[in-house]
Amino acid sequence: MSSKLLIIIATGEKEKAQTGMMYARNAIKNRWLDDIKIIFFGPSERIVTKDKDLSRQVQEIAQLSECVACKYIADNEGLSDHLANLGLKIEYVGSIISNLIKNEYVPMVW
Question: From 14, 32, 73, 108, which residue has the greatest number of CB atoms within 10 Å?
Fold first, then answer.
């Protein structure tokens, strides 16, 4: 069984986003798995730029591990600079997600 995880935080709901980020933070800190990748995608990109509590949590996770936000959405919604200031890399994520799944990362979507 793979111990590589791809966490995709896509929800626009604060409680779900917090839950996903809490799991990500704890899994990284406690080394529950061998490798964890984190991608912010869709509505989550919007909510983490508007909610100060979520913004703080994103910054904390980005200090622990590289996190990526979807460039297409970020650019189209004018969020790229704000997301980058939170510590996220801004990249097109379609091929990243596909390649990680091909390389046996288990996707967990929040």
Answer: 73
pLDDT band at 106 (very low <50, low <70, confident <90, very high): very high
Q: Containing domain of residue 98, as a range?
A: 4-109
Judge contact between 19 and 110, C-beta under 8 A.
yes
SS3 8: strand
Are 66 and 35 a contacting pair, CB within 8 Å?
Answer: no
Q: How far apart are CA 84 and CA 74, in angstroms?
A: 10
Helices (H), 1-110: 14-29, 43-50, 52-64, 71-76, 80-85, 94-102
Residues 6+ apart with CB under 8 A from 39: 6, 7, 8, 9, 67, 68, 69, 70, 93, 96, 97
> Each residue of 40-80: pLDDT tens digit?
999 999 999 999 999 999 999 999 999 999 999 999 999 99
Identify the CATH number of the domain in which residue 26 sits.
3.40.1260.10
